[in-house]
Amino acid sequence: MNEQAVGGLYVFILATMVGLEIIRRVSPLLHTPLMSLTNAISAIAIVGSIGFAGSGEDPVVTILGSVAVFCSMVNITGGYLITYRMLSMFKRSKRSGE
Amino acid sequence: MIDAIVPFIGLAAAVSFVLALRWMSAVPTARRGVLVGVAGMALAVIGALLRPEIIDYRFIGAALVFGTVIGVPMAMMPMTAVPQRTALSHSFGALAAALVGTAEFYLHAGSIDGGTMLALGLEVLLGSLTFTASLMAFGKLQELLPQRPITFRFQNYLNISLIVTAVVCVLLLAIQPQWTFLFPVIVILALSFGILFIIPIGGADMPTVISLLNSYAGLSAAAMGFVLGNTLLIVAGALDGSSGFILSMVMSKAMNRSFTNILFGAFGQVQAKAASTEARPYRSASPADAADILKTAGKVVIVPGYGMAVAQAQHVVHELYDLLMKENIDVKFAIHPVAGRMPGHMNVLLAEANIPYDRLIEMDEINGELPMTDVALVIGANDVTNPAARKDPNSPIFGMPIIDVDKAQTVMVIKRSMAPGFSGIDNDLYYMDNTLMIFGDAKSVVQQIVKAIGGK
Questions:
Q1: Dihedrals φ, ψ of B110, to 5°?
Q2: Test the A interface: residue of B9, B45, B92 with most A CBs within 10 Å
Q3: Closest residue, chain B, to A62 (C-alpha)
Q4: Chain B residues closer than 8 Å to A54 by CB
Q5: Is B215 helix (H, G, I), strand (E, B) or coil?
Q6: DSSP summary character for residue B269
Q7: Does residue B156 carry a pLDDT above 90?
Q8: What stretches of B266-305 show up as alpha helix (H) in DSSP?
């Protein structure tokens, strides 16, 4: 196994452990916005897609990459916007200290 | 120059994603979390665009514009449609991973080393099956497809053999990268598995399935990170994957079902023996009676179910809440983890109707208060209130955690008729001495209650 793959595995396992720890603390109240937020975050796949869409090497690769950029962009704009919109709906009650 | 900066931009983006999720832990910091996530994403995208390998910006530009044009309206959907929207966005994410994997394979087929090929195979396998499975889930949630589980003989054997064959093909391709003909086989097997995998899953299990697909979409993005040697992708994919995993655990625990049972069990066929044939006596009341009882109460717990959202009753429920709070009655909402069609869905539906979030109480916490509650008002919820889950070992839902409404002084249930609900299980709650059934459409019944209370 090459060094890069081992490094990747380190990162993957540690990020998963961090993920499990912080997500466990998310209030069930916010599980729906949590899912739309993680959905937007994993659309970071756009970074890889851009490389294929803009390489200009081969029309097939350009098309596959561009569709992938499109899909990721839908999730980025849609995901962050709807998460923010949902969170804006959560309001505290006016009378406090009950 | 830019090549030296890009790795650090990636690191900054990874940190921002961790912070974004960290701040999602509570409402007051959550919006800040979204903003920091957006900032990280913007940095990463700019970094990717500045790379010297990018020579043609026309297609990227068009894709970014079209993506925004479709993405923004998808964020403006009503809250009842959020589960469908989420399923659809899982399919977009998974498709992106599958396409990038295919592009990589197309460019370098035959010369990819075994380890990378393994990651690429997993990326395409997970991406393709999540793509079709999420589309199927979307179809079921949008009611384009039948909600009832569809089962046939040897279904599980067929599904398992499909996925096992696909995994074997991935392994073979990793060992013998020149066997390129295996690649389309993997794609076709994965796409078909995605469809067949959702067919036997019923509407009630959708919250678990959506969470599971969330996890798969994340893992396919992480696999893509391995293929491209991109650490940021690995981190983001791992975070998404672990989030989906935790949510699916929460959901299956709340339904007292194992993963295997949900995926291979086809909950649909409910034992006819569970419903006794003899008609049992029950008490019913009018909305005016209900109003009188509510007015004299000191503490009221409302238990909403998806039926409330179907009847579009959230806003009248908010009116009822306001009216009772004005009378100095303590009103809280009891939220079961599987209320609604996806994790946390009920909270969002009630928040949309302007009900303050500090009144939305989780099941475990509210159960401690129910014995001191004067009135429990059940609106459109059924199985999650069935005391048989606690008392009757023969019940199909025995062991499922429920909201203990039966412990309240008086229970009022708003329901269309005595017909059993989605799962087909009769609810013992309806026949208890302290239960009053109020028949009718949830929205119009609550409206009548509001009128009766407000009119005096």
A1: 95, -30
A2: B92
A3: B59
A4: 49, 53-57, 59-60
A5: helix
A6: -
A7: no
A8: 287-295
Of B378, B380, B360, B393, nearest in space to B429 by CA: B378
Interchain CB distance below 8 Å, A78 and B90:
no
CATH of B281-454, one of 3.40.720.10, 3.40.309.10, 3.40.50.1220, 3.90.1150.10: 3.40.50.1220
* pLDDT band for position B320 (cuts 50, 70, 90): very high
Pull the structure tokens for residue A37.
């937020």
Cβ burial, residue B358 (10 Å; 0-12/13-18/19+): middle
Give the closest residue to B411 by CA, choosing from B389, B388, B386: B386
CB atoms within 10 A of CB B133: 29
Please list, in sequence order, all residues whose beta carbon lies within 8 angstroms of the beta carbon of residue B449, skipping any fewer than 6 positions away. B287, B290, B291, B294, B320
**Any idea which residues of B carry the catalytic annotation?**
383
Inter-chain touch A26–B116, beta carbons under 8 Å: no
When scoring B105, B235, B252, B326 by the number of chain A Cβ atoms within 10 A, the one with the most, hence best to mutate, is B235
CA distances from B437 to B186, B290, B330, B367 (A): 54, 10, 22, 21
Stronger pLDDT, B420 or B87, i.e. the higher one = B87
Q: How far apart are the first and last CA of chain A?
A: 60
Question: Which residue type is seen at B321?
Answer: Y
Sort residue B23 into left (φ over 0), alpha (ψ -120 to 50) or beta. alpha
Contact predicate B199/B268, CB 8 Å: no
Which residues of chain A make contact with B90, given a CB cutoff of 8 A?
Answer: 39
Let me know: does A32 contact B345? Beta carbons within 8 Å: yes
> Looking at per-residue confidence, does B370 or B149 come out higher?
B370
- H-type helices in B24-113, by residue range? 27-49, 58-74, 82-108
> How far apart, in whole angstroms, are the C-alpha atoms of residue B194 and residue B27?
35
- Report, as an integer, the average pLDDT of B404-433: 85
In this predicted model, what pLDDT tens digit does every residue of A39-81 receive, in sequence order? 999 999 999 999 999 988 799 999 999 999 999 999 999 999 9
Residue type, B24: M
Per the prediction, chain B carries an average pLDDT of 90
Reported ipTM: the value is: 0.94
Collect all residues with Cβ–Cβ distance below 8 Å to B154 and sequence separation of at least 6: none
Q: How confident is the model at residue B353 (pLDDT cuts 50, 70, 90)?
A: very high
Cβ–Cβ < 8 Å for A27, B29 = no
CB of B237 closer than 8 Å to CB of B100:
no
Taking CB atoms and an 8 Å cutoff, what residues of chain A touch B89? Answer: 36, 39, 74-75, 78-79
Amino acid at site B375:
V
Inform me whether the pLDDT recorded for B263 exceeds 90.
no
